Amino acid sequence: MERPISKPIGQHFLELDTPTLIIDKNLLQANIEAIQADLEKASIDLIPNAAAHGTSAIARMQTGNNTKSPIFVDTFQQAECFFQAGFENIIIQAPPLSFTKKGLLRHLQDSQTLTLSISNISHLDAIRGNHGSPISVLLKITNKSDSVGFKTREELIKPIEYLATFEHLRFEGLITNANEMESMEQACEVLISADEYLDRNSISSDQLLLNASNLIFEKEFNNIPKGITGLISGTYPFHTKTQDTVCSVISTVISTPEPGKAYVDCGQKAISVDRGVPSVINYPDAEIEKMSAEHGYVIFDSNKLHLKIGDKILLSPASYSDTFNLYD
């Protein structure tokens, strides 16, 4: 796929070279503020998963330009990028098992507030030699939608005792992933139960974090139980309860071979289909049938809609994070 032709600042978005990813900044800001307000009512911190978009400008909006406010990332490479962009409080999901990651850990450790999510006691052996500024450690526990982590609350005691033998490592709390909306309640119960067990063993957890990065929230957060301190989310800035769309990919109709069918210049190189084909935003009677690497196949009722070459079609991705990953 060729790189888009740059256009001057101020150009109408429908005149941009296609395919291209666009964001409505005003709707983005409104979404961020609305979700933050909902969680504040429930006394829960909102921690953005900046890996969902990989964009420092969006992360600044999510943190209110407070570089000391925590963000969550999936990898050490992502942590390094956001550190270079000025962020000072980063939670990293992936353990530092490779030589390269250990080198990044030493760099990040001496430069900022760093928290690691650990899902196996052997991960502690990988970081025990990294002496320097303190590292906070979250222990990841399993639930019915995520099998990676410590499987029973009894298993938590040994790594916590092991952590206490290192001056530069500190037990921060617990984290679990909710990979399905139906598993949210059970994931919260797992966190609360594990925390209560640790408390009975004279161990306190400062953080109980629920990682729901890939879930789309369509209701308020009153059902999250008291005790959960933070919610990690990656998709919340881009989804809205209204018909307005925060994030979309612009495409252009390049062929209409027969009534009820059109081809657009946007395919799998410009919008991810790993979690499903995108939906058509600006033509409710049209839908994407399938996609090749560089083209999309649009079907519609020709009695209700007439598409012609040059028409612009806005596509909403099934996965925002996978689509952002396709762009610089």
What's a concise summary of this model?
The protein is built from 8 helices and 15 strands. It has helices at 25-41, 56-62, 76-84, 99-109, 121-127, 157-163, 184-200, 320-324; strands spanning 20-23, 45-48, 71-73, 89-92, 113-118, 135-140, 169-177, 207-211, 230-233, 247-258, 261-264, 279-280, 286-291, 296-300, 312-316. Helix 3 packs parallel to helix 4.
What does this structure look like?
By secondary structure, this protein is of the alpha/beta class. It has two domains: 13-21 and 245-324, Lyase, Ornithine Decarboxylase, Chain A, domain 1; 25-233, Alpha-Beta Barrel (TIM Barrel). It is 24% helix and 24% strand. The chain contains eight helices and 15 strands. It has helices at residues 25-41, 56-62, 76-84, 99-109, 121-127, 157-163, 184-200, 320-324, and strands at residues 20-23, 45-48, 71-73, 89-92, 113-118, 135-140, 169-177, 207-211, 230-233, 247-258, 261-264, 279-280, 286-291, 296-300, 312-316. Strands 2-9-8-7-6-5-4-3 form an eight-stranded parallel beta sheet. Strands 1, 10, 11, 12, 13, 14 and 15 form a seven-stranded antiparallel beta sheet that branches. The longest helix has 17 residues, at 25-41. The radius of gyration is 22 Å and the shape is elongated. It starts with 19 loop residues before the first strand and ends with a helix.
